[in-house]
Design goal:
The chain is α/β, with parallel strands linked by helices and 328 residues long. It is 38% helix and 18% strand. The chain has twelve helices and eleven strands. The chain has helices at 5-9, 15-24, 72-80, 93-97, 146-157, 172-181, 193-199, 222-226, 228-250, 252-263, 267-275, 288-303; strands at 38-44, 63-69, 86-90, 105-112, 118-122, 138-141, 166-169, 186-190, 203-207, 215-221, 282-284. It has a five-stranded mixed β-sheet with strand order 7-6-8-5-9, sandwiched between helices. The chain has a four-stranded antiparallel β-sheet with strand order 3-10-4-11, sandwiched between helices. Helix 5 (146-157) links the parallel strand 6 (138-141) and strand 7. The radius of gyration is 19 Å and the shape is globular.
């Protein structure tokens, strides 16, 4: 099942929408056979986990039903609503659902990767040279994502408070429209949309290098992990995902062409993103260092009053699939 692009660009799924997705998602047949099982997996448009076929690892012994989402925050909500078994996100979305009743989100792997594609953009004619120059300005960001955290950290570095700017929470596509029209003065954003904005003349004021850890997370539903058969499928899925990562690292031009074919974005933009990245991508097992990194992020949100109370992130992490992955 692929969610419609129009619905995704609305910036979020309602509780009713998530319930509907859960209701229409294929269910696992309790038969003890992988071939009777359907794994419900999330992906982003053009993300690594959408390329199992191209990487030659799509021959799973179980069925995979993939749903496309606009961001990791929506994937976390869908897992929590019982609509998904597995999906990727940054360190931030699990923090925002940690306190939800019966929270289902459990982090099972770490995707280490680029932080140079997460930036603060300003228009080409902006006078801002450093982030502090944006005091009092309208700054777009995506709530409950790395964009939100980058903005928080940059405010702290500049000695500014949340109230010293005009923060504007927007979906990526709404943010692009607002930035292009001049409705916001700066935009904290991520992904290939950065390259598209640069091509149109936007200037990078600051990247997330030195701010983000480079840890992106794969989360699974607790209910899926508690099911022995589905847990077996999840482990197999992660092993295949790791092979897709290796395939993408092996040939930058091939990877750029594959993403272009899937999204319609020019391959040259993906190639530039690849060549400018801060690190190779690796899918690895969870570690104490990764947990500590997310705890630091959670503490920053709590200190700023952007979540109701301090969150202990350790219960969010589940190492039952570590054996399917290499060490960090």
């Amino acid at each position: 099942m692929i969610l419609s692009r129009r619905h995704l660009l609305a910036g979020g799924l309602s509780v009713a929408g998530l319930s509907a997705l859960a209701a229409c998602s294929p269910k696992t047949v309790k038969s003890g056979s992988l071939e009777d099982l359907t794994l419900r997996a999330a992906t982003y448009r053009g993300n690594l986990d959408a390329f199992f076929q191209q990487a030659g690892v799509a021959d799973t012994p179980y069925k995979v039903a993939k749903s496309e989402f606009a961001g990791g925050n929506l994937i976390a909500e869908a897992i929590n609503a019982g609509a998904l078994d597995i999906g990727g996100m940054s360190e931030i979305p699990p923090i925002f659902v940690a306190g939800a009743p019966g929270n289902q989100v459990r982090i099972v792997a770490v995707l280490q990767g680029d932080v140079n594609n997460q930036v603060v953009l300003v228009p080409k004619d902006s006078k801002a040279q450093v982030f502090a120059d944006l005091k009092g300005k309208r700054i777009g960001y995506v709530k409950a994502t790395t964009s939100h955290y980058i903005l928080l950290r940059l405010l702290d570095e500049a000695g500014l408070k949340w109230t010293d700017i005009q923060p504007v929470a927007l979906s990526p596509q709404d943010g692009l429209a607002a930035f292009s029209s001049g409705a916001i003065d700066a935009w904290v954003i991520y992904g290939v949309i950065v390259q598209q904005a640069r091509q149109a003349g936007a200037r990078v004021l600051r990247t997330a290098l030195g701010i983000l850890s480079g840890n992106y997370l794969v989360a699974a539903a607790k209910s899926a992990l508690d099911d022995p058969l589905k847990r077996q499928a999840l482990g197999d899925y992660l092993g295949r995902y790791a092979k897709v990562v290796e395939w993408s690292n092996a040939d930058d031009a091939r990877w750029a062409q594959a993403r272009s074919a899937a999204t319609g974005v020019p391959a040259a933009l993906y190639l530039r993103e690849f060549k400018e990245r801060s690190a190779l991508t690796r899918l690895v097992k969870i570690s104490d260092a990764a947990i500590a990194s997310q705890q630091g992020v959670a503490d920053a949100f709590a200190t700023a009053g952007l979540i109701p109370a301090k969150v202990d992130v350790r219960p969010l992490w589940d190492d039952r699939l570590n054996s399917a992955l290499p060490n960090a």
